[in-house]
Amino acid sequence: MRPKPNISPKKLPRQRRAIATVDALIEAATYILTSEGLAGFTANKVAEKAGVNIASLYQYFPNKEAILFHIVQQTWARQLDRLAPILTRPGPHHAGKLRDFLREFFLTEAAEVDLRRALRIASIDLKETDEFKALLSEGANLTKNFIAEAVRGEALEDLEFVVDFVVLLTTSFAERTTDAGTTGAKLMLQADLLAAMLVKQFGFAEGDN
Questions:
Q1: Burial, 73: exposed, middle or buried (Cβ in 10 Å; 0-12, 13-18, 19+)?
Q2: Lesser CB count within 10 Å: N end or C end of the chain?
């Protein structure tokens, strides 16, 4: 078994110059991931693109995996900022919330498709770390709480299965359709069809949308 990579930052930047250095490194790393994918991603390339000495990079990040995880954190934070308000919106209109959630989720996946494709590959090496598991649990808990409130009958009795099924289906389909370059009205139609299927299958409360 491969040892877990150390993805904790060595230190957090506090002064303005240090913050600017880390921001430049992350911007450079994101650019390289988006344009070259994980195969072209190295610490030396990141430092060179950022105009930073490699020694300065290692002051903040112990390895390239730590840089990758920092980008994963930022990407997930942006996504949660857009998605969490939809699922936690007051009211019983769960079918409408699910539809709006899937539309927004598909849009966020499509907006950064090259970056997200590279991060999915990178996540294979990160997924066994405690930090990555904690990141996953935040989104999983949000989804579980929404589904627990939204579903009825037998679906509620198998809540864990329903959560796993919904997450796997929505993420896999979103990845596949955005990787294929689907955008615009067709992307929204697919999100709506998926939402309608889940509402019918698991009895999401319709409310008055």
A1: middle
A2: N
What does the domain layout of the chain look like in residue ranges?
A: 16-62, 65-202
Residues contacting residue 80 through CB under 8 Å, at least 6 positions apart: 138, 139, 142
Q: Where are the alpha helices (DSSP H) in the chain?
A: 16-36, 43-50, 54-60, 64-87, 94-111, 113-126, 130-150, 154-157, 159-179, 184-202
d(CA 96, CA 100) in angstroms, rounded, equals 6
Residue 208 has pLDDT above 60, yes or no: no
Confidence label for 209 from pLDDT (cuts 50, 70 and 90)? very low
Q: What is the pTM of this model?
A: 0.86
CATH 1.10.357.10 applies to domain 65-202? yes
Q: What is the pLDDT of residue 157?
A: 74
- Both tokens assigned to 142: 């949000």
